[in-house]
Amino acid sequence: MSFEIKNAIQNGKTVLGIELGSTRIKAVLIGEDHVPIASGSHDWENSYVNNIWTYSEENIWRGLQDCYQKMATDVKQQYGVSIKTVGAIGFSGMMHGYMAFDKDGELLVSFRTWRNNITEQASKALTELFNYQIPQRWSIAHLYQAILNHEEHIANISFQTTLAGYIHWKLTGQKVLGVGEASGVFPIDLNTRNYNQTMIDQFNELIEPNHLPWKLEDILPKILLAGENAGVLTEAGAKLLDVTGELEDGIPLCPPEGDAGTGMVATNSVAKRTGNVSAGTSVFAMVVLEKELSKVYPEIDLVTTPTGNLVAMAHSNNCSSDLNAWVGLFDEFAKAMGMDVDINRLYGTLYNLALQGDSDCGGLLAYGYLSGEHITHFEEGRPLFVRSSDSNFNLANFMRVHLFTALGALKLGMDILLNQEEVKLDEILGHGGLFKTKGVGQRIMSAALHVPVSVMETAGEGGAWGIALLAAYMINKVNHETLEEYLSQKVFAEKAGMTMSPDPEDVEGFKQFMKRYTIGLAIERAAIDYLK
């Protein structure tokens, strides 16, 4: 088998996917059967600079290069050959945010990530103007907020894009985005699979009094659909990605996509009535709709699949960050006691303990709001753990309440879709860090959403694998083969998964917890107001 893989590497029959997530940049190289054959990753964290969550350009490139190099080293160690070329490459990144450039391609202000809840004024005004939900983290909300703030750089904008769009542009020279990624920049017209022209006209009219030297359509990236060619790796781009100079130019790239779209692809959730939930630093559920929603909901975002079908998205800014911090505290305690505990074993032990707790967490309450949370209308976050004198305070309930609260805001958003809009879901596919400990995150997610949750063996591969599959689809599709057909027949036909149905006791316990969670939001508000 390794001989066949070695041949595929040498003959450029592999495909590379790289995703820049919130805490990790990951590269996955797949073979002709779409199975990962090598990988590399680089851990990184956002910085909070001048009240902005950001990543520096230096860290973006250093991280990307390190990630690529580790993947290339993995190839050399496993197969004894160097990577000189691949069949195709795809780049993905955390969606939304704000990257604005001048005519010389220089970044005008530091990258503002999706995590910033600083565009409330713009978000409300645009939602009202378009009669279409414009969340705070969307690129257009960031742009309009900067205009409202009379920021100096606005007049100098020549191009605005996302993190994935930025990487793709620097490596290919092409200012493009995949439609799924673009749907988190500006609303999409489902008929044209392009930016909504009526809304573009409305926006241009809105900003006319500012006498800016550009119109919105001049500065946005061009939209491409899954399967379309998005340019090739330039000579300069190859040197930028692979600092050793071994990688050759001329490799085709697929349209850059967002982590929402790659999550859909990695879980085979691009067809109608399917959904997936990605649970890591943030948590979001994506449901591919059969029809449009009856009205605008501030808690629900509308984006698209990489092929341009409508998707309802319930997105919570906070999921596992506070949970990870508590596990880190237990790790510190173990080391202080002279015990060297494997971190995966520690997570597994603590997560499994949560399943032994009281169904409603014994009356405990927690909020893992490290940053603001738009579903519950908080502009900042204050992680909290609260209990009353008669709560059943033990380690099992402590872990259980932190796992429950990681899904609290998401639950409020999903209730709108499943109860008020009566959206039909056959099952949800889970992926991301929360599902690494077998059976725990899955069981709690199933209880929260009251729907069967499946986790595939490939779920750990995540978005880097998803964007690699999109790049493979671009070069391998035949005739008019759709992405849905390609994934179902050529990628997932024999992939095994484990499905878990909701446990009635867990469902009831989660309901009780949510009553406490909703009432207790006043405590979170007080913490934000008084704990500066």
UniProtKB/TrEMBL annotation:
Q: Which UniProt keywords apply?
A: Kinase, Transferase
Q: Name one GO biological process term.
A: carbohydrate metabolic process
Coiled-coil parts of chain: none
The record's section on PANTHER family has: SUGAR KINASE, XYLULOSE KINASE
Q: Which Pfam family is an annotated match for this chain, by its short name?
A: FGGY_C
Annotated ranges, domain Carbohydrate kinase FGGY N-terminal: 15-241
Organism's domain of life? Bacteria
GO terms, molecular function: kinase activity
Domain (Carbohydrate kinase FGGY C-terminal): residue spans on this chain: 276-474
This protein is called ATPase
Family, similarity comment? Belongs to the FGGY kinase family.
Keyword Secreted on this protein? no
InterPro entries from the xrefs?
Answer: ATPase_NBD, FGGY_C, FGGY_Carb_Kinase, FGGY_N
